[in-house]
Amino acid sequence: MQFFLEVLISGLLSGVMYALVALGFVLIYKASGVFNFAQGAMVYLAALAVVGCMEKGAPLWLAIILAFVIMTLFGIATEKFVLRKLVNQPPITLFMATIGLAFFIEGLAPIVFGSEPRALDLGIVDEPIPAILDAWDMVISKFDLVAAGIAALLVTTLALFFQYTRIGRALRAVADDHQAALSIGIPLQHIWAIVWGIAGFVALVAGLMWGARNGVQFALTFTALKALPVLIIGGFTSVPGAIAGGLIIGASEKLAEIYLPPVMQSMFGGNFGGIEGWFPYVLALFFLLVRPEGLFGEKHIDRV
Amino acid sequence: MFKCRMSALTAAVSIALLSQAAIAAEEQFFPILSYRIGPYGANGQSFFGGFVDYLNYVNLKENGINGVKIVWEECETEYNNAKGIECYERLKDKAKVSTGPIHTMSTGVAYALIDKAAEDKIPLAMMGYGRTDAVDGSVFPYAFPLVTTYQMQASAILRFVKEKEKGSLEGKKIVYLYHDSAYGKEPIAALQEEAKINKFELTLIPVAHPGNEQGAQWLKIRQENPDYVVFWGWGVMNQTAIKAAQKIGFSRDKMVGSWWAGSEEDTVPAGDAAKGYMSATWNVAGKDVPLIADIEKVVYGAGQGNLGDTSKIGTILYNRGVSAAVLSIEAIRKAQEKYGKGKAMTGEQVRWGMENLDISDARLKEIGATDLLPEIKTSCDNHEGSGKIKIQQWDGTQWVVVSGWIEGNKGLIHPLFKASAEQYAKEKGMTPRDCAKEM
Question: Assign residue A180 a region: left if phi > 0, alpha if psi is -120 to 50, beta otherwise?
Fold first, then answer.
């Protein structure tokens, strides 16, 4: 039982890390109805910008601020040079544009900041908390707890922002219908620039946490793969849904990795395991069958 | 008159074509299937940087291989199997005229090319990777898993661990944590056999690609509480494993990785967590090796260095790239001894050179490559040529070699690959060469 709890808690904490990446997708989707294929690349760019600035001599706090400025400028540039020309185009066109954007970032970022895998030390050691280890013989990492706290703060802030601010309401209006939003005087360009800037900030937070955990390197772009099933389960338009989806994916994949292989081995023989890669997608597929809009997603109803 | 003019024209064109062919024949072509961008670009930059620098070095220092200028063309694979095949197809026509061995630095691409390369008579080098059973040259005439195979490497790692445990692994628990791919699965058969002989308990724990999340695996390791973790990782999986070991409090000096998990690119991103971690290798890091120092002087001195970032010179993977190029050039030299000095060698001829390599310590010293390679002696029935590795340990800032040459258990491993090669030949309907006739 104790081991089960340890795996469950570890999975929930990993899920928070997935949710950090998924949040960026939700923001863009909520504001523009676009699935941003470049979110993983943005996480990579943000983390690279931090270590790149630190290599030039900036202390960590300044590097984070500079990276935030870079991500904001990147957001504005994306709106100006990529999205502005695509207003009122079908979502698939915008989606294709974000694929191009992902390749662009993946090519440009290492040229500017270097492609060497580097360590990122945020001053939070990824070691078990001794008190918990001694009392319950359970491994709970200080780093994971900090990540969970940051994610909770981020989600609360973003949920309040979308619900109660003018810009938040404008973002939702733009997502529903570009043309209608324009016709009632919502400045689409500004809104898109803002939302891409915020998504850049979320990517920076995700990049800092993932970069500190596994090192800053190209593989940060793969974090997006973990976010996709989270989005399907939580819903593409829900900020709290990203967290809920992250927790479900994190916990279920860890429990599955531990408890499914022995069952499969007894049934089919051989050596099973390494199922974390596909298990979240199978789970997401199941959700698509029973609740296609996700747990917290908006139901789409068309009048015919 | 018209007929006469036509024959003169034909003769002129023929002479021109022949002389062009003669010029082309004086150049030894190298098709290079490299990856310098993409997820593993940083590793590829160092390896292929070292490889190309040595080719350039031979051109600058010795005016080529016995006067045959080396030329090469690179094609970016991004460590992607499909792109690897595309690159091979793009370069193979040139390689049919003359070629050095192809190094893909990718088990996946190497697997995909084994049959094609044999068909096209282009030798495929797989230094420390690829199919273990390709050691059997009677079945795989064009594939060369030189220096060490995954199975021999795993066996050598266990021998090292056994020495640390005062000569016995009986009753010990060893976890094999591996990338869930052909690369990670290759050593399993060898480890299982070793477990039977040495009476230790072996637990297999796979990690799904890319391996950037290993929480469950390491909790399982914590539950198992093994004496050692033998580790077959690649890319981000390496740093993630090292950090995850720290997270559960597993001592890093009880972790021994394969050579794919033993470069600066694997330890630096893990920060302090990597201190004490060990891995297999066959070349040292640093610029103390005379050849590496001379390459920097000659090639970079002439402004023809391949690396933009010269801090990579002397890293594990840079030096390994040089070691791969040294082996390739030595194979061509060997081929020239048989087929004519000063001539460009075809794939078939280079294949012969690779199958008859005899690189002694004296020869390594002569070219300044001591500590870059073990002694290598290949033959028709042994395309590996060595089977030896060293163990290195990360001291927090650099790799330090902590063992001498360790050879895997040949008596155990070679029959395993022999059986596998026979099975492969049967599946393909091939008749293996008679190695006795190749002597």
Answer: alpha
* Cβ–Cβ < 8 Å for B211, B240: yes
Mean pLDDT of all residues in A257-261: 91
Query: HSE on the CB side for B395, CA within 13 Å?
Result: 8
Q: What is the pLDDT of residue B324?
A: 97
- The ranges of chain B annotated as CATH 3.40.50.2300 are 2-148+288-377, 151-281+392-416
The total domain count for chain A is 1
The parent domain of residue A24 ranges over: 2-224
pTM attached to this predicted model: 0.88
Q: Which of B163, B161, B234 is nearest to B202 (CA)?
A: B161
Ramachandran assignment for A217, one of left (phi > 0), alpha (psi -120 to 50 degrees), beta (any other): beta
Residue range B407-432: mean pLDDT, rounded: 92
Predicted pLDDT of residue B1: 46
CB B294 within 8 A of CB B27: no
pLDDT at A135: 86
Q: Which residues 99-138 of chain A have a CB within 8 Å of chain B?
A: 107, 110, 114-119, 121, 126-128, 133
Class of the CATH domain delimited by B2-148+288-377: alpha beta
Respond yes or no on whether the N-terminal peptide bond of residue A229 is cis (omega within 30° of 0).
Answer: no
Report CA-CA distances (Å) from A142 to A126, A147, B292, B386.
6, 9, 43, 46
In chain A, helix, strand, coil percent, each to 5? 75, 0, 20
| Confidence grade of residue B10 (pLDDT, cut at 50, 70, 90) | low
Alpha carbon of residue B107 to chain centroid: 9
Let me know if residue A245 belongs to a domain.
no
Beta bridge partners of B229: B175, B255
In a domain, A181, yes or no: yes
In a domain, A277, yes or no: no
Band (B11; pLDDT cuts 50, 70, 90): low
Q: Is A292 part of any domain?
A: no
For B237-296, the pLDDT digits (tens) are: 999 999 999 999 999 999 999 999 999 999 999 999 999 999 999 999 999 999 999 999
**Which pLDDT does position B21 carry in this prediction?**
46
Q: How far apart are CA B246 and CA B329, in angstroms?
A: 43
Interface residues of chain B, partner chain A, Cβ below 8 Å: 37-42, 45, 180, 188, 204-210, 212-213, 215-217, 219-220, 222-223, 235-236, 239-240, 243, 246-249, 265-266, 268-271, 273, 309
The whole-number pLDDT of residue B7 equals: 54
Pairing type for strands B201-207 and B173-179 reads parallel
**Dist CA A294 CA A297 (whole Å):** 5
List, for residues B293-312, the tens digit of each pLDDT value. 999 999 999 999 999 889 99
Taking residues B155-170, what's their average pLDDT?
96
CATH 3.40.50.2300 for domain B151-281+392-416: yes
Q: Which amino acid is at A155?
A: V
Name the pairing type of β-strands B278-281 and B255-257: parallel
Asked if residue A227 lies in contact with residue A21, where contact means CB atoms within 8 angstroms, the answer is yes
Cβ burial A77-109 (10 Å sphere, 16+ → b, else e): ebbeebbeebeeeeeeebeebbeebbeebbeeb
Structure tokens at A25: 């997708």
- Chain A residues with CB-CB distance to B210 below 8 A: 219, 222
